Amino acid sequence: MHPVEISLRIPGTSPMPALIRLIQDVEAAGFDGAGILDSQLLCRDTFVTLGQAATQTSRLTLFPAVTNPFSRHVSVLASAIQTVAELAPGRTKVVIGTGYTSASTIGRKPATLAEMRACIDDLRRLLAGEAVDFHGMPGRLAYASGRPVSLLMAASGPKAIELAGEVADGVMLLVGFHRGIVDAALTHLEKGARRSGRRLEDLEIVWAVRASVAATMAEAHRQARPTVVHQGIMRVHARWLEHTRLSIPHFEIPASVYAIYPDLSHAQDWEQAIAATSFVPDEVIAELSDALGLVGTPEHCVRRIVDLTAAGVKSLYVMPLQTFVGPEQEIRTFRDAVFPRLKAAGYR
Length: 348
What we know:
The protein has 348 residues and is α/β, with parallel strands linked by helices. It has one domain (5-217, 294-344): Alpha-Beta Barrel (TIM Barrel). The protein has 13 helices and eleven strands. The chain has helices spanning 16-29, 46-56, 74-87, 100-104, 113-127, 158-167, 179-195, 217-234, 255-258, 270-276, 282-292, 298-309, 328-344; strands at residues 5-10, 33-36, 61-64, 93-96, 132-134, 137-139, 150-155, 170-173, 204-213, 293-296, 315-320. The strands form two sheets. Strands 1, 2, 3, 4, 7, 8, 9, 10 and 11 form a nine-stranded parallel beta sheet that branches. A two-stranded antiparallel ribbon has the order 5-6. The longest helix has 18 residues, at 217-234.
């Protein structure tokens, strides 16, 4: 039996004073960490938020989740990371991804895996005080401390997971939350780790999971509709369903789904997004919810967390469904219902 570390996703869509109070509430509720969304047109600046949070908390691990290689030049990214690490020594890490809404909202494509590899390599060197070649100019971070900051890579596809295993200090996996999916993802991660002479035990592995905790299973499933349709029917995550023995029928996606801004799983109007997914039957939503998310009553979600620890899950990044509504409800639910049950079971 092992304690499970649980961090919470914080979208920076609230005004800064409210945002900092919210992060303090996350710490007081008993979470282990807070990940701050990095999407420049949707959220307040991630590193300003992290700097403020560093001075207003004492225990939380703080990290951007997820930043990317293109909205900030790698030298600017290294500078920002080092600055926050000085304010929260020993409790700062970084999660780097391809930049989903950061890219789509400015009309560009996400970063390639080659760009991810280069970014992680250059960041590690800059934070260690080493020189990096910038178009023939060797540049160094003048105030690098040399103390390592963990660089994790967010990954959801097999090739990305293997790259994370090869080059990063760890990985944040957004693939689903099912025993079969966990086993398959870890197989790819181990394959990548072997390329650089490492083992799974050498990596920090965080499981990102979309969460909808409600008083009834029916309401939790209803709220999760936009997310599980986006993940399980429209996007790359659907490929992981083959490891669950589920048989999800093919659906034609109506135009109303593509009209949601900025996209279905980040919708500003969540009820509109729920209505747009009415083409998927309730029973399919229920199956997808259990395969891909942490969806249900507090009792159900605790059972799922406990079950998945047997498959090697030791660290969770809980992602509340909505981006434009703060996670106040999730903070209360985990504080009052989930954490006490996990503690009673010996997992906190």
